[in-house]
Amino acid sequence: MKDDLIQPDRGQQAIAIHLVSKDGFPEFAKTLSGPQRAALAGQKFTAAGFQVGIVPDGDAWFAVGGVRNPAELSSWCLAKLAEELPAGLYRLAQDDAGKALHGWQTAQYRFTRYREDKDSEGPRILLSKEAKAIGPALAEAEAVALVRTLVNTPAEDMGPAELEVEAERLAKAHGAKLSVTKGETLEREYPMVHAVGRAAARSHAPRMLHLTWGDEKAPVLGIVGKGVCFDSGGLDIKPAAGMLLMKKDMGGAAHALALAALIMGAGLKVRLHCLVPAVENAVAGNAFRPGDVLRSRKGLTVEIGNTDAEGRLILADALARVSEEQPELVIDFATLTGAARVAVGPDLPALFTRRDETADALLVAGKAHDDPCWRLPLYEGYGEWLKSDIADANNAHTNGFAGASVAALFLDKFVAEGVDWAHFDTFAWRPTPKPGRPKGGDALGLRAAWHMIQARFA
């Protein structure tokens, strides 16, 4: 975000916004003059959700927004207003914007790296009397914008090296330490990360990014994100249509870095370990092959049933590494399976956890902050589908059933026993726009995880 779109209300001259429900609109209309009611009628304003009306008021004007319930605002209640109103300063006629501060900001996100936004008139700034809410709201919207921008950027400009630059920027901003493992050291310490990424061009060489921050005596919190910057499918190559969105296959890494930024920015009392295995799954003479057997950091051997099931391989090494820190909680994010999208669609990240109470906390946080997720089973009975005749496990099963659960079961093998672990199989993409949520890269599961972590480590 280029501007602080939420600013303290110090009595500045600003345009008023009235929020009205459909049921409350007749009573509200009684407070208006005849010409004002006519103006709204001419705009066909009925106070339906996301409707925006402009009302003349002498030489000035005010805005009216349709919402379901002015007393219980969602994150997106102000989003359409922020998208459609002219640039300027605004304040709500009611005192409390609450969660709606978020949508006011995210509605004004634009991805302009490659094309100027000629339609933008400038920022719409909302004045708020909730002084303590402004900083957290700005940080949360900035984190969402970071996910969107990283995911929207094509792989040519967002490869493993560029993810490293982003991680270094965050480390410098928050006084964290970033270690980067590449080359022969990567092959030795993170063999599956190296195998998946070794076919890429030198400029997109694989690496493990490991950011650490916080008091070493504090509870360890592990955050892991899948950083496949482009996924061709490897030698099990995807069809052309299947590659069109594969710049977003590092969406898990984008979520992990954004969540790390929120954690560090808030100064949570944790010892943070954020790991991003960053690779490009390319096709070349040295690409890993179907039938190969890879040795993992944990020591387990993995037969490759499908080179297009590469995300779980790099996550496995990262999860094994973070488990060595004896974490109190590990959360990973990954654009892992098409099966999750078939099961729950693009809007809902599929959530897998070992512990019911962790799932409940994430589901409650997601619902409370308009970032819903849906729990799917870690059903141990499906683990037999990952058996290999020659190795400890196969990375892909062949029957086509329960793909998201089976992928999660594969990851579970690499998280240390007893560790509280949650896995988000997120889409990181919005195929159709909604108020406050433009088409393109998006954060799905980020806010659920953030608010759960805040509550747990406050």
Automatic annotation (TrEMBL):
InterPro entries assigned to the protein according to its UniProt record, in alphabetical order: Leucine_aapep/pepB, Macro_dom-like, Peptidase_M17_C, Peptidase_M17_N_1
Residues annotated as domain Cytosol aminopeptidase: 306-313
Short name of any one Pfam family annotated for the protein: Peptidase_M17
Matches recorded under SUPFAM superfamilies: Zn-dependent exopeptidases (SSF53187)
Keyword tags: Aminopeptidase, Hydrolase, Manganese, Protease
GO molecular-function term, one example from the UniProt record: aminopeptidase activity
PANTHER family in the record: LEUCINE AMINOPEPTIDASE-RELATED, PEPTIDASE B
Membership in a protein family: Belongs to the peptidase M17 family.
Name the record gives this protein: Leucyl aminopeptidase family protein
Native source organism of the sequence: Croceibacterium selenioxidans
